[in-house]
Amino acid sequence: MPIDEEGPRGAILQRDLETYAIVPRTPAGLVSPEDLENIVKVARRYKVPVLKITSGQRMALVGIKKDEVDKIWEELGMTVGEATAPCLHYVQACPGTAVCKYGVQDSLGLGTEVEKVYSDLNLPAKLKVGVSGCPRCCGESYVRDIGVLGSTKGWTVIFGGNSGGRPRIGDIIATDLNHDEVIDLVRRLLEYYQVHGKPGERTHRMVERVGIEAVKDAVLG
Predict the structure, then answer these.
(1) pTM (2 d.p.)
(2) Which of 16, 26, 62, 168 is 20–30 Å from 74 (CA)?
(3) How many Å apart are CA 96 and CA 102, to the nearest integer?
(4) CA dihedral 186, 187, 192, 195 (to 10 degrees)
């Protein structure tokens, strides 16, 4: 989607070059009944033609007129889920121990904390995180910039994955970590990425350029 530099806040210009899409932030795919009610209200009031659940567990409102974007944001009362800026775009998380019979770790709890802690961090390019509460890996942890995978022994942290046109399976950085160790290791990985990533370079391309051993030496040494 092309970006309209003069467009309204938190809006993405669509291919018709006239209408916009907005993506409210829904941490780890969680949304409250109140937020859903507000989305329905604005969709009906402004005749939003398309409501789309994205691959990142968010809801895009598509086909909005330029002069209605700010009004819709105000009425939604939700924060912007970034879709183009060089920062954390979303944390994708499976249900984990909250409800899933296979869950062995609290993926929703960890995922929402990661998004809360790192959502405002400036990065070289967009960043996506996948958190899975068991080895079935429903959070697609191996194909996200940062992946976290739960087992009965703790968490595994994965780095440099991507599911795009040139996909890459991420590298395992550490295993059998507790909650606080995951948060700390994610911080160190992001700090490394901030320093060594080139503008516009996703984590998987940086890893291919510098080598995963250099990353491990820096964050684990």
Answers:
(1) 0.90
(2) 16
(3) 7
(4) 140
Interhelix angle 212-220/203-210, rounded to 10 degrees, is: 100
**What does residue 205 show for φ and ψ, rounded to 5 degrees?**
-75, -35
Q: Could you read off the pLDDT of 40-63 as tens digits, one per residue?
A: 999 999 999 999 999 889 999 999
- Tell me the per-residue pLDDT of 94-125, one tens digit each, with 9 for 90 and over: 999 999 999 999 999 999 999 999 998 999 99
Return the DSSP state at 144. S
pLDDT at 2 over 70: no
Q: Could you report the per-residue pLDDT of 120-160, keeping only the tens digit for each?
A: 899 999 999 999 999 999 999 999 999 999 999 999 999 99
What strands, in cross-sheet order, belong to the sheet with 50-53? 12-13, 19-22, 59-65, 50-53
CB-count burial class (<10 Å; 0-12, 13-18, 19+) for 105: buried
CA-nearest of 219, 145, 211 to 181 is 219
Angle of helix 107-118 versus helix 179-196 axis, rounded to 10: 40
Strand 146-151 relative to strand 154-159, pairing:
antiparallel
